[in-house]
Amino acid sequence: MPVQLLKIIKGQSEIPLPSHLQKENLQHLQEGRDHTNKYIQGIVTLSYPLTKLRDGTDFFKIVLQDSDNLCSQINSISVLIYGKMAEDCAKIIHHGETMIVAGFKVIKLPTAREDGRHECHLEVSEEAGSAIYICVKAGTTAASETASVSVAPKYVYTPLNHLKDGTIVNLYGVVKFFKPPYISKGTDYCSVVTLVDPSNVKLTCNLFNGNVDFLPKIYKVGDIVRFHRIKIREYNGQMQGITSGGFASLTFDGTVGAPVVPRASSRDYTFLDEEQKTIEELRIWAASNISISGPATKLSGVEPMLFFDLTCQLVGKAKVDGSSFLLKVWDGTKCPYPTWKVPVEAKDLEGEKVLLHQLRDLSVDILVYDNHVHLAESLKIGCFLRIYSIHTKQASAENEDVSHIEFHLHGGTCYGRGIGVLPESNPDVKELKAFLESVELTESQDMESMCSMDMDSTFGNVTDLELHLQRCQQLSVTVLTDHQDLSNTELKTITNSTAPQQYRIRAKLRTYKPQKLHQSVKLHCSKCNSLQEVPDRDDFDSILRGSASTAPNPELHSTSWYESVTWTTQDQKQREIAIHFVKHDEMLQHPEDTLLMIEGGTLKEIWKLSKRFKCVIPVRSTEDDLELLDLSAPFLLQRNVKYYGCKQCSTPKPMKNLSSIAAEQQPSWEPTEIAQVLGIELLQYVFIMKFTLVDETGALNAYLFDYEKFFQIPASEILTSNFLQQKMQMTMDTLCPPGRKLGDLPWLECFIRSYNVRDAMKNQVYYQIFDTTVAEDVV
């Protein structure tokens, strides 16, 4: 058993601690670090009654004070003990006794402490391989001394066929499948790893951490991993592994005969000599039981319509647009097909110009999309990469007779799609570097001719920029999406005609309102056809502060369809906060799939949660159920978008109606579906603008009422995205260039419809733009 009494004789323990344990300073405890072979020692200053948790697990809490640093500002820490260890400790621990804790997990508390205690607490249990030593003076006895005398075990590794739900274990496994770390829908990095071992059982692990360096450094199928303190849970009849506090990993090359060199996720770790035998045994087993692909494909071996992994060096990179990024790479071999060169301006391309020119026939352009862009932007020129699941496409431009090959890394993580950075110590990198050094490069041209060539290929010089503007003046900067049979009608004819009618026009945009483009975004109810301004953050903040005055109702916590967590802030107001995590199949989901409801949260807290979790709904307690706040506040937040309901058309229903979505096989948590079950008439974000259009015959004012079609930008996202706001401003500057004469303005082709608006006094004709979008080369 992992609780042991140490008799102290003349200041020395009768039985020494295991030799691999070293004392840790309380100040050095930090969540995410590896404290595997460390122990904490302190005096028991406070203990709480032994209790049982909701699932029947025994629970015992004590407070340890660091006797060596009594004058320190942080000199104590809470220790949470679970299971049989809790029962044993409750029988023998007394105030004032010295206690030693090893094999603990460090968990950061949600709020800062101001009572001298550490910002983290320790969690220990027998299942996690923890050990507790109680120091008692010779001659004293404890109630359960005879029941608690076994020495704490060293690390025990659990075979995959012996895993149990709810336990935290240590294990070894061979990588059968993996996804390189990627940014999850929250702020953490995520990596998915499927492991097997000689028991022929498979375990899929979902690993999360805010620091990508703390995730396993896996480079290929067949690598061997050692996981410490991974939590096991059962989902749909299968065991899954997820990260827990103190999770740590080592990764080894799975090739038989390769050096046994660990790739660690933390600075401090222990790897014993006997564990080398485990690695060798797993390598031999994997060689005949795991399907490991051969050498990665070289550029010289690619073909159209191929998915392949590429080990290469990065020589150039550039931003293409908001959802794609260019990587220029080479591996020393030449692609047998003509390759696509992504058009970017020379000033935007990072990399050494001389080398890029020398490698113009050997390097290829890989366009990466969506979730891979963030990592691609952070890559350093010269680093070595393994890019997984690149897609080659055969294509040809309209003015080309010969087809070319395009290289794409599509968005998402299916089939292990992603980018991995390889260290220079990696054997594949050493082999690639040696090969690259042997490649003879063509002599570079002189810099003057090179720069001239680069400028001629882009809009980097004044002449080409003027040609581009002249082209915009001659061609239409908008595209018609329907009604191609209609012919152009002069504006004078339109203003002299009766309504309602539809027209096709060719005109110039003389001016527009509002000039401050963010003011063009409104909220529209399709049911009552009302328009309203988007509430500002101060209104939302005021509503949240008002709702925080109502304390959460504990009788509504942790129902059959959601799990609740509560705490009280340590500030003067001592707000009570409750977060209710909606479950699926009685299980909590990953953050990016989870809807949560929050009571008592501030605006800042809710924004942070919305970036990490799929959906956030601010609520308050009533006597019988949770309910939405005033509809002046958003009823739902998803990432950067706040969703509002129409006060006039909505009939809010109890939050328990959400349980019908949670019971679906794969809950999507789409705003429209959430609004429907909650009785909310969803308001839609729209652009409302007035364009003054002119041609040779006259002028008219036409209104733009658009959700996202005209600008190809969602109105729901424009207020929280600087990038989209800049994109919209650039678009308007192209449609209506500031400071230019009317003759220099570009032409717009539009569809407009006329309609009548009647009031008690008169009938007035208005015009609205429809079925028109901004041309792609403008956007």
UniProtKB/TrEMBL annotation:
Entry GO CC: nuclear telomere cap complex; nucleoplasm
SUPFAM superfamilies reported in the protein's UniProt record: Nucleic acid-binding proteins (SSF50249)
Localization, UniProt: Chromosome, Telomere; Nucleus
Domain called Telomeric single stranded DNA binding POT1/Cdc13: residue spans: 157-287
UniProt keyword annotation of DNA-binding present: yes
InterPro entries reported in the protein's UniProt record: NA-bd_OB-fold, POT1, POT1_C_insert, POT1PC, Telomer_end-bd_POT1/Cdc13
Chain ranges passing through the membrane: none
Biological process according to GO: regulation of telomere maintenance via telomerase; telomere capping
Keywords: Chromosome, DNA-binding, Nucleus, Telomere
Record family assignment: Belongs to the telombin family.
Official protein name in the record: Protection of telomeres protein 1
Species the sequence originates in: Cyanistes caeruleus
Organism placement in taxonomy: Eukaryota, Metazoa, Chordata, Craniata, Vertebrata
Gene that specifies this protein: POT1
